[in-house]
Amino acid sequence: MKVEQRLAKWARVEMTYDARGLPERDKRFLQKLIEASQYMDEAFWRQSGRGAVEVWDRLRASENAKSLLRLFSIMAGPYDRLEEFEPFMDVPPKPLGAGFYPDDLTREEFERYLAQHPEQRESLLSPYTVVKREGDSLIAVPYHEEYREFVEPASRLLKEAAELTDSRSLKRCLASRAEALLTDDYYQSDIEWISLKDNDYDIIIGPYEFYEDRLMGVKAAYEATVEIVDREESHNLEVYIQYLDDLEGALPYPEKYKRSIEGLKSPFVVVRDIYRGGHLRAGIQATAANLPNDPRVHTEYGTKKTFWKNMIGAYLKHISFAVARELIVPEQFELLPRQPDIALTLFHEIAHALGPRWVIQVDGSKTPIREALKDHLSPLEEEKADVVGLYCLGYLMGEGIIPREHEREYYVRDLASNLRGLRYGLAEAHALGRMCQVNYHLERGAIFYDEASGRFGVNFDKIASSVADLAEIILTLEATGDYEGTGRFFQKYGRMPEIVRKALGRTEDFPVSLEPVYKVLWE
Q: CA–CA separation, 34 vs 164, rounded Å?
């Protein structure tokens, strides 16, 4: 497949923001944030591994090639397809550990070393260190040292931006994050970010997601996005905050694993972004996020849920509706909304904030579930967010808090989203989680395949119980930190049946995801 054909798989969407009517001080403020975010983008490509850096440096002058590299950096995993393109013939394969570990380090060797050197375990498994060889030893180099040339100017720009806002909470947040970039201690700045309120602007900047690390699944990648806040829509979502503890208590898994989240903060922020970079811009474009990922912040303070309404609308316009028409039986396709709706996305992010954060050992000590489940956690957690989110939506309908009139629509939309997400390729975490859902519900008869039309539909009599049972399986795997059991679960349900492969074949001419092209009109 030629470069032009591959690029056609991504809907190129212009994301233009008109800032000409803003006060000059606000313009300078946003420009500082964007410039700081661009340094995070540069740092991310260094984290992605030597293959990514070589290609990135080589192709700076070619916008098409830069786009292709961004899009394949996560979806394709190792650069196993780039040999099709002459400019990339001598690019080395991307290691499982990206740029976070020595290229030749295997999981088995690393785990043996950790067992033999328990005094280094914390530093080597830190989300914010790069692992390197030093003779026969492994050492941990903090991010702020390894990526000094990027984090120092980004920190300076955040401090300068802080001086351009009159908002005390935003000023505090930016100053705290500027310091965190230089120390890799993000705890306080995460709290300051969650605590932001009544602001017209927001920013996500720093190392957050773990998808790039396919060796151990514990190293965070840099990302950034500069956002314009829709305060009215954000306020409309606050009604759900009061139900979070009820939802945690209603989850269908053993009571001994549940936790109280009463009193924890969980703000909802609806935004449009005017720039995104790093991990957030590479590969599949996110429509929402539940951050930070630090389990200490989750259990002691809470999380913040961000929804990018410009990206949600773009998916519907360019991809979702057309793909669903090909994959969903006609009578159920008619249930799908024609306008953007964030209900499923909202509950997906709510579900990320629910469930276990630690595995409790026999001696009472706590192990972060990410450390226990390693590379399995990302796809399992994404599947949990889908399944538990749908379960919570059903629970609130059962309690009369959300009207039941759209119940069938939600289940069909979930099926359509799962099928569309399979097109990312099963090496991608979200897609593997969605494949497991489809196979489990097919096995239970909760969804069906119509031979005549080659399309899928929901069995409304069975879907709710199937969702609840699958939620219990996933939540228990996380709570117990069962790495081997999760592997068996993926082996059983993570393979693509021929009927699914055949149906997806009819969508080959549709884009897989989006490539946003950001432009800000300053003058």
A: 14
User: Tokens at residue 187, please?
Assistant: 């705890």
Please state, as a whole number, how many other Cβ atoms lie within 10 Å of the Cβ of residue 448: 15
Q: What is the DSSP letter of 318?
A: I
pLDDT tens string 124-170 = 999 999 999 999 999 999 999 999 999 999 999 999 999 999 999 99
How far is Cα 477 from Cα 489, in angstroms, rounded to an integer? 9
Helix H, strand E, coil C: the string for 45-68 is HHHCCHHHHHHHHHCCCCHHHHHH
Please count the CA atoms within 13 angstroms of the CA of 159 that sit on its side-chain side: 11
CA 90, 93, 98, 104 torsion-angle sign = negative
- Cα–Cα nearest to 174, from 110, 105, 224, 140: 224
For 85, residues 6+ apart whose C-beta sits below 8 A from its C-beta are 3, 68
Which residue has tokens 């922020």?
Answer: 269
> Which element (helix H / strand E) includes 307?
strand 304-308
Please check whether residue 298 is in contact with residue 196, taking contact to mean a CB–CB distance below 8 angstroms: no
Residue 338 per-residue DSSP state: S
The residue behind tokens 């790495």 is 483
Residue from 244, 202, 195 nearest 225 by CA: 202
Average pLDDT, the chain: 88
| Measured distance CA(425)–CA(436) in Å, rounded | 13
- Asked whether 449 and 329 are in contact (CB, 8 A), the reply is no
Q: Examine the pLDDT at 514 and tell me if it is beyond 70.
A: yes
8-state DSSP, 9: T
Determine contact, residues 261/354, Cβ cutoff 8 Å: yes
The residues, ordered by sequence, that sit 6+ positions from 44 with a Cβ below 8 Å of its Cβ are 221, 222, 223, 277, 278, 279, 282
Taking only the tens place, the pLDDT of each residue in 62-110 is 555 555 555 444 444 333 333 333 444 344 556 889 899 998 999 999 9
